[in-house]
Design goal:
This protein has eight helices and four strands, in the order βαβββααααααα. A four-stranded mixed beta sheet has the order 1-4-3-2. It is rod-shaped and about 120 Å long. The relative contact order is 0.09.
Amino acid sequence: MPPRIELFYTDLDFLNDEAKNFFDSVGVNSFHIQYIDEKQAMFFNPQLSGRYSNCDVSNRLIYLVQDDGIKQGNLESVKDMVSIHMNDYALEYYRILFLDLLLIDAGKIVVNYKKLLDKIKLKRNSLNSLFKLKYKFSVEMDLYNCYVREDDHNTNLRDLKKIYDDSYESMYKDNAKRYKFYNNLFEGVFIANKKFQTDISVILKEFDEKETILQNLYNYKNTSRGMKINELMLIITAVTLILVIYPSGAQVIADIIDNGLRMLENVFNLSK
């Protein structure tokens, strides 16, 4: 499923124990709540319940808003606060969620091509297969490379993270500190991306190393074949020169060549 943000409005006080039942009903654990402010909260690792409990829902966020009908400063309602927050940061949420999904798919591609690369033997006729495999790998990784190259949102991301950092210090001032689940999204995905880029560098290096070995093998074989061709051309040149100087010897040489071919034919017939 594509990345998404599910928005729920409720009149429950997030800080009230009665809110726990509501959290359970929408598939989230109250311990995982991360506040934007006292009336807005986000869940970064929601879980489904019942028969769907094993489903992967890492591509969604749950946005809970306490709508008590009370005006918020110059705003008409809390819905205006939601609109402001989403207008400013919805793109950042989706960019990170998409990168998270992209890393999962791209990681599978790298693992698969690593297996295919290991199957290529260090033989002369393997060079073209290696080139073809490397080309296919670059095509399949193009979406990931384009995304990480063109998508720059560090500034907005820092601003968004600061909102949660400030709220964390404010909301849990007098209570036991909770785990910063929002760091899993804001920082964890970039740590994973950095590690993944290292994985890409490793497999590209393996491609290059294998290509170097096969290219050296190809060059060696070509050199060896070239030397044999040169030797043959030298013999042909010598024979031609002899025939020019001694035309009468042409029939003798022709008989020698004919006898040699017949001997080779007999050897091959005997081996069948």
